[in-house]
Amino acid sequence: MSETIVIAETKQGMLHPVTAELVTAASSLGAAPTLIVPGTDDSAAAAAADLAGVGRVIACVGDCFSAYDASSWAKAVDACAPAGIVVCAASQNGKDLASRLAARRSISVAQDVVAIDGTTLTQPIYAGKAMQNITLNGDAVISIRANTFAAAGGGGGAEVSVMNQSADIATAVREMIAKASERLDVAEADIIISGGRGMQDPANFVTLERIADTLGAAVGASRAAVDTWDEIPHSMQVGQTGKTVNPSLYIAVGISGAIQHLAGMRTSKYIVAINKDAEAPIFKHADYGIVSTWEEALPILESELKALLG
Amino acid sequence: MPDIAVLIKRVPDTNAQIRASGDRVDLSSVKWVMSPYDEYALEAAMMHKEAKGGNVTAITLGAPECDKVLKDAKAIGVDRIIRVWGDSWSDLDSNQTQIALASAVRETSAEIVYCGKSAADTGAASTGPGVAERLGWASASNIIGLGFEDSGIEVIIPAASGNARTGVSLPAVISCDKGFCKPRKPNVKGIMMAKKAQVEIHAADIPASGINIVSHTPPPQKAPGQTFDGAANVPTVVTALRNDANVI
Ligand SMILES: Cc1cc2nc3c(=O)[nH]c(=O)nc-3n(C[C@H](O)[C@H](O)[C@H](O)COP(=O)(O)OP(=O)(O)OC[C@H]3O[C@@H](n4cnc5c(N)ncnc54)[C@H](O)[C@@H]3O)c2cc1C
Question: Which of A11, A105, A109, A300 to mutate to test the interface with B (most CBs of B within 10 A)?
Fold first, then answer.
């Protein structure tokens, strides 16, 4: 069996929960994985060591990790990680790092893996219109989509070692421009409620926001909504030229279900569609479709959810 | 006045129906286009030239039918067009692709390479950062803002805690998201020039593939859903989400 290495996903210095899913994916490919935890210090290593099934933890510590910089991260992580099959998260930065790391080692990278069956890995291609099944010839770097593997549990007791790295950064963050809103990002959310052109006016997105707050959800949008209204930023766009999401629940409101929108959300575990047009293509992909205007459906949805969730 | 390169890829139109036939997808009747994000990269390269000078070279990797996207780039106004290919190549993996493209970039005197953040076919987002690593250059990915400075560029990269205004010194590879430009359309003169333009062919030595493609299969089919007529059914759906789906 090959050696497997997991590159932990971190968020503001803490271990991101997807890391536990990466451990499960890596364990299905080989022996107990080595978990590399990049950071400016080793504070996330204890949580990493607690994950069941981890062979050992290496805290890869360096100043370069204060903000994402592809070349220094790849150099530092490469120096800490043994040879083998490396597993990263298929997040924006995770995929970028996976690619640089693979190139550094002159091996292949396979992105967005959603299933592992023996030695066969499956990844969506053509925006999810088909699946590609592959096998690896030797070492490779792979990235794993969030929400596709069960999370490893706690109670592990892996040994932690610290490796200090110094790598010159090649890109320098000059300023963080705060987000217009503090709302949850669609790429991070387990529940998403999205509005399309059928919302008729960006002001009507407040209704979606109120429901999102009740559910702990993020608010997304179709491209038509983003392109039509300045108030709806591109960062909210779900789809082929927006974000690819994989939540447990996706609620599409006033969205027709164009193929490019489906490209970004078709793997959601449950899809609810609210649309006044019974012929809208989104209904073919919805687990639960409600043929209604949002003006009628959303107030009921809001009061039902408030009654249920408080 | 650094020269500029832009990597572009020919892909099926995003509206195309893609079906697996046998164990491979059937692409025989799809319409082919330049990958949407590459249009932003091409625009970025042209903006860079207008701001700072330098020649723009468009590079693609693929069989002769990929000349079309190079001609499209030529019609927009790039100076050189290069296609990287070897007659025996097929199904290149990321390692082979990046080695071949990096070798073509070295052929130009480019110090900055623009590409799309991901291609519409694989969606992988591997090429930009991978080519940068081969060249030993900086890279910045998924940019949504771009400005030109005396000794480099400034880009805006979306991050978890906001947007990072980031300085990048050259040489560098920049992968482009949408949001900072509107790709220009070719004019008649450009289209005429492109017809006559010569595609330069570049060969490269590539290693064996690290990946075997076993098969292409249709996406997993979900069980058909239920559709309810009228808002009065919202409580039924909420109950199902709670009790059957267990997602709220
Ligand atoms: C290269 C390319 C990339 C693209 N990328 C994306 C992408 O990333 N994401 C994306 O979303 N799209 C993308 N698109 C665009 C896509 O093709 C569609 O145009 C877009 O998704 C349509 O958005 P929509 O469903 O909000 O609008 P429409 O198609 O206009 O649909 C509006 C829907 O709202 C319903 N409606 C109207 N009023 C009400 C009401 N009162 N109550 C309830 N329902 C109502 C209507 O019945 C209709 O179904 C892309 C297109 C191309 C060519």
Answer: A109
pLDDT tens readout for residues B62-94: 999 999 999 999 999 999 999 999 999 999 999
Q: Which fold has domain A191-309?
A: Rossmann fold (3.40.50)
Nearest CA in chain B to A70: B139
Per-residue pLDDT of A173-190, as tens digits, reads 999 998 767 789 999 899
Per-domain boundaries in chain A: 4-164, 191-309
Task: Indicate whether residue A128 lines ligand 1 (CB < 6 A).
Answer: no
* B162 pLDDT higher than 90: no
Residue A276 to chain B, least CA–CA distance (Å): 9
Residue of B nearest to A279 (CA): B227
Question: Could you tell me the pTM of the whole model?
Answer: 0.94
- Is A130's CB within 8 Å of B179's CB? no
Q: What is the pLDDT of residues B109-153, one digit of tens each?
A: 999 999 999 999 999 999 999 999 999 999 999 999 999 999 899
Domain boundaries, chain B: 3-202
CA of A187 from ligand 1 middle (Å) equals 19
User: A-chain residues within 8 Å CB-CB of B137?
Assistant: 71, 170
> To which CATH superfamily is domain A4-164 assigned?
HUPs (3.40.50.620)
Q: Whose CA is nearest to atom 38 of ligand 1?
A: A198
DSSP string for residues in chain B: --EEEEE--EEE-TT---EEETTEEE-TT--EEE-HHHHHHHHHHHHHHHHH---EEEEEESSGGGHHHHHHHHHHT-SEEEEE--TT--S--HHHHHHHHHHHHHHTTEEEEEEESS-TTT----HHHHHHHHHT-EEEEEESEEEEETTEEEEEEEETTEEEEEEEESSEEEEE-SSS--PPPPPHHHHHHHHHPPPEEE-------SEEEEEEEPPPPPPP-EEEESGGGHHHHHHHHHHTS---
CATH class of B3-202: alpha beta
